[in-house]
Amino acid sequence: MLFLKTFYSSKNPEKKVSQNPRFSDFVDKQTGYTTKNILAAPLMNGKDPLGVVMAINKVGGNEFSKADEDLFTKYITFATVIALQHYTSYMYNVESRRSQVLQWTASKVFEELTDIERQFHKALYTVRTYLLCERYSVGLLDMTKEKEFYDEWPVKLGDVEPYKGPKTPDGREINFYKIIDYLLESKEEIKVIPTPPVDHWALVSGLPTYVAENGFICNMMNVAADDYFTFQKEAVDESGFVIKNVLSLPIVNKKEEIVGVATFFNRKDGKPFDEQDEQITEALTQFLGWSVLNCDTYDKLNRTEWRREIAAEMVIYQTKATPAEVQQILNTKEKFDMNPEDCDQREMYKLLRANIPEAKDVDLLLFSFSDLPVSELDLIKCGIRCFFELGVVEKFKVPAEVLTKWMYTVRKGYRDITYHNWRHGFNVGQTMFCLLQTGRLRKYYSDLDAFAMVAAAFCHDIDHRGTNNLYQTKSTSPLAKLHGSSILERHHLDYSKTLMAEESVNIFQSLQKRQFETVQHLHDVCIIATDLALYFKKRTMFQKIVDATEPMADEKEAIAYVSNNPIRKEIIMAMMMTGCDLSAITKPWEVQSKVALMVAAEFWEQGDLERTVLDQQPIPMMDRNKSDELPKMQCGFIDFVCSFVYKEFSRFHKEITPMFDGLNNNRVHWKELADIYQAKVDAIENERKRLEEEQAKKATGEDGGEGGKSKTCTIF
Amino acid sequence: MLFLKTFYSSKNPEKKVSQNPRFSDFVDKQTGYTTKNILAAPLMNGKDPLGVVMAINKVGGNEFSKADEDLFTKYITFATVIALQHYTSYMYNVESRRSQVLQWTASKVFEELTDIERQFHKALYTVRTYLLCERYSVGLLDMTKEKEFYDEWPVKLGDVEPYKGPKTPDGREINFYKIIDYLLESKEEIKVIPTPPVDHWALVSGLPTYVAENGFICNMMNVAADDYFTFQKEAVDESGFVIKNVLSLPIVNKKEEIVGVATFFNRKDGKPFDEQDEQITEALTQFLGWSVLNCDTYDKLNRTEWRREIAAEMVIYQTKATPAEVQQILNTKEKFDMNPEDCDQREMYKLLRANIPEAKDVDLLLFSFSDLPVSELDLIKCGIRCFFELGVVEKFKVPAEVLTKWMYTVRKGYRDITYHNWRHGFNVGQTMFCLLQTGRLRKYYSDLDAFAMVAAAFCHDIDHRGTNNLYQTKSTSPLAKLHGSSILERHHLDYSKTLMAEESVNIFQSLQKRQFETVQHLHDVCIIATDLALYFKKRTMFQKIVDATEPMADEKEAIAYVSNNPIRKEIIMAMMMTGCDLSAITKPWEVQSKVALMVAAEFWEQGDLERTVLDQQPIPMMDRNKSDELPKMQCGFIDFVCSFVYKEFSRFHKEITPMFDGLNNNRVHWKELADIYQAKVDAIENERKRLEEEQAKKATGEDGGEGGKSKTCTIF
Q: Which residue segments constitute the domains of chain B, with CATH numbers given?
């Protein structure tokens, strides 16, 4: 069925035509003409023949003369130039069309990520004018390889005949699930036929199935005369369209699977499709086939996204405080019915406040506050109290139910790990509250700022896994792949924003759009700021602000200096977060000594993981074999990281001095312990040296050596 | 800098050259030749000039004669043909190279989804021979638009000068983060230079920056003579390479952002790059630019996948039984230390069994078992007991800790919804256990089969959301988008497999690979089988098996008939799942009447959602306004769905008859209730009719109408 151009070449002119065995009288019989003699020569393009020039029947003679031959040969040179020009021009046109087809197809394929149907549709539509045909159809093949097990049961039981129809080379049942049909003649018309019947005109010939089965390019140059496929004899549809010739090609993806069949009908000039048409359409279908990667990716991307959405919803479901848990705190059962949302908020607030620990029980305004004697449930209640005491609950119309649910959900978001658990999360929130209120930093901030800052502080380590950023990177966790820097912090931030997106726990639900955006930005600033790696970036900037405000006699001047400049506000805020995050180091010694051990224990656990999972030696801080050096390391941490923070804050606001005092007090304790350990180490070292010297003396005595210097090496 | 071909055409030969204002003596001065007269004519391709032919200085005369002109004109015709052939051939070559470049580039771009660096690298490498240049370099641009807030602080505070360097048209700072350098001369050499210094030879001229800034194509035809850019005068690197001419193009994506700059050095034939080189490289860079969609998609796909992984891990963390919860059941605190995994399993089994309800308390072998008096925690223990009684725990080496953790985790996977909660999940597992043991269906199955079937039954509705498949579809939930059919069932199946993938809760952890695959397949069969939409597909197949085994006198024959055929085993298994799933309908009336209400309540809740969320009228079954019709609907459900299942199972195994009896008993109760309701409806209807007739009579009396027939229409 492939179109073959055959050129017959005859170098020596034949003098007696009818006697020559190469002579065919076919044309003579058709035309009634009598060929007597022929003078013929080929037109060559290098080694490739372009055509043949023939002079037939010498006028005024019985045969062509030598002179005729000479003249003819001269003429051939010129004819070759003309033929070559024609041929080259034609091939230029073909190549030009091919690159246009490729470029336009690419333009559409890369326009957007979409499904195969739309992609093929768009691409073919764009290049339609270059195809020079009257109609085309694209059949899309079902890519399913395996059937559902319950659909296979009847076959396997022998109740149903197994499929015996045609299959693609990779074993799929051939099933065109969709046809895109484009009639380019007169009024253009596109039709998309989903699940076309087998007797649809575009399929009934069996040609697309044949192409899908074998992967061949089929060029039927005269459909009417072809007896392999039975095309309809009359018009194929109501448009009156009649098929004259057909070029059909498989569309094959990079995995060598046939994904569809493209069929082109009736070349525009009425001639059959030729080799060049095959070349152009093959380039097109090859490109389209490859580009199915994009459609497959589109599908994969969608499926991954849906799976992500499903998992995200499950996380929310599993971590959101249940009605029973909310009830536990609100304790509204007696007073209100099942649906507290409908209740009067002021009544709810009263009730809620009645259920949270009193100031006299736990004083949240103290820098020295300790969570240790408070239950985790009571800490949730204390967290709620902070917002009431800030005065933001009523101001920003936070429903009591939502506030409770949010706080409880935040608690549930923290994992039950050694240090970075809910107790730590709570402490950071409480310290933020304390810095604003007791530390009087609030004067620089709006109520909305304060609201966002305390909320962000409570969320700042939510879903922490007890391992640090470096561990995420080294273990190439999905978190590390997703976030380039501040890995965990970005995750905590994402989590806090997920809660804002979930209406039933969104404490910011009553805010206006602009206010809500402010809250989101402040969460960015506050939560990312807890990445200690960024601490050194902001140190100097913070110090400059403290330096600038220190000499100001008038408080108003300092307030204006800070609160009129959003950047200064943010820098102080960021440093406050660090102050909160590290605040355990400022707590009374009996608290700090316990908490420091928890921090250390979590580090050691990471160290264990590094050894077992990553097969690496942990740094001393995370090496439980070096736990004796904890006091020394604490001193170092105080000197190189913490001291600056609390010293500067105390200089900034004298109300914060208790934190610095606490820090210094703990420094004394850690130093004492470090000294005791050092004394032990020194004692052992001294003992070792003493023994060494003794040994040396002994050796000298025995050897009778030279002035106490031994030449032997003492090995222990 | 663009290459311009300019043709000067002169139609009338100029006779006195030096006097002619158009004459330039430039060449004469260069060569020392004296031009006296010129005969010139253009070579035209239609309206486009191809070139000029000039005859200079008539020999044997002072000027060209008319005869010269005539001869010259004749010659021009032939010269035009030759020039045209040369031109067309050249253009054919250009177009051919262009389509080759496009096709090869496409071939690489669609080979795999990858990042921009690798994609550009592969594509350019593939087409390198078509580029006909000695070297090329590709600079990739940083796509970051916004800086991190903390990096902007110093700028906003005025401490650091804002960036004033060149920017891309879309406002990005120009920063080449990577250069791919390919030296095609002599020994080919590819280099990838990450974060190249600004004085790197490929950047130092400023040309790539200039291109990135303006988006212009720059063709520098003679680098040495160009004074706009200061190229290095000596060799650019140790290879001794010297730049002679340069063609530099921006690579622009579909969003019109410049993503990189491609620069080609030194055309192979030593000539400057021409318009056709520009065309080919432009086609290439345009294609590459568009194809960045693939790289962006690759990035997006990865990020989505990482987010999915993060969420999936969070789900597992949040739903996996905690050590405290496991402890609650194992109760090993006194006997063992913190780590029960290390303990002797037989001791652990004993301990576990001691903590689960005794047979006398709750008889799990009864078809009439009711969960209602049992606490949810005890149901977890009962679930564990099933596996012990099946004898699979010790046989398949399921650690007691893992079994406990799995069962508790399954419980936590069920949501606390009205009907499809843990209690339902438990009941289906218990009924499966009962069908195998009490119903004696176990004889067809291996121990491994039984193990998998009971496990699958417990998991079969895990994470159900209280709405059915149709609701998922109508609300276009992510679940519906992900799964084409059996939407929720596929989700429950996925969940059950997630648990198998999590080692600490994988009860199948000790199985061999083949056994594990069997278990997975049986989960597919069992869990998908609970989609009632598939029930009608398997009905007849099941009935045939029952029909075939019924006449078999010898039990062994029946066992062989079923157990030697994996399909029959699966069909019975699938129908068992249906029997388990619907088993509430066979329970004692006091249980069924309560459970039926829970099922109905969940349906009504869905109906409410359909009304509120989807704005649709629910079907009667889900319409709480039609709750009175529940008994009637229950009768219908029994008759059209349930009856077949239990009737056939009773016929298959007489041991299962209690279920069918239970069903029939409930049928009687529901019928009674339906009749009572129907009687009420009838009574109201009769009353309505009576009143109507009375009214009619009255009307007749008043109107004195014709034989009691009123012509007025009575409207209530």
A: 1-111 (3.30.450.40), 113-299 (3.30.450.40), 323-672 (1.10.1300.10)
